[in-house]
Amino acid sequence: MTQATTRAAADALTPAAVEAVESRIREYVRCTPVISIDRAEFGLPAGPLTLKLEFLQHSGSFKVRGAFANLLLRDVPAAGVTAASGGNHGAAVAYAAGVLGVPAKIFVPEVSSPAKTSRIRSYGADLVIEGATYSDALAVSQKWVSESGAMPVHAFNQPETVLGAGSVGLELRRQAPDVDTVLAAVGGGGLLSGIATACDGEI
Hints:
Number of helices: 8
Strand order of the largest sheet: 5-4-3-6
Helix content: 40-55%
Number of strands: 6
Shape: globular
Radius of gyration: 17 Å
Order of helices and strands: HHEEHEHEHEHEHH
Number of domains: 2
Largest sheet: 4 strands, parallel
């Protein structure tokens, strides 16, 4: 991305944009439940802890939110979509593509778990296992994009991916309005960026 493109993408990341995307993808994703437990169960000072059970989402993770956001908000070419993934993002893009009737080609490295590659195949995507690392799979997927014209769906470095992930934060605010601190895992940063955008400094 150029600096100008990066700035434009950052400008697009607003709470209002998260709300608009959440409205667009709502019919395709689950509003996952939350449960409340005592922090003492984890050896912490007593007090409420709210967990959002996003593992109950379609394809098994929050990633499907960003996948649907990309496929619904961007112009998908006849060649379909492609993604590089360690597993979860690939499964999410494969699932979303299957639901929307879009061709999908997913690239994963050789270290991806059989359970994840099996899930990707079960959603009807064309699966390519190549390379030792995620970076290797990404490079092969980029070559495929240049050859085929397929639309790449990045696992985290794409405004639509971030905004889709932000719907997790939006739901959590509605389901647990008294929450004052949110903890989110960080891999590429898409989930954390989306939640931070949805909460906009209020939490």
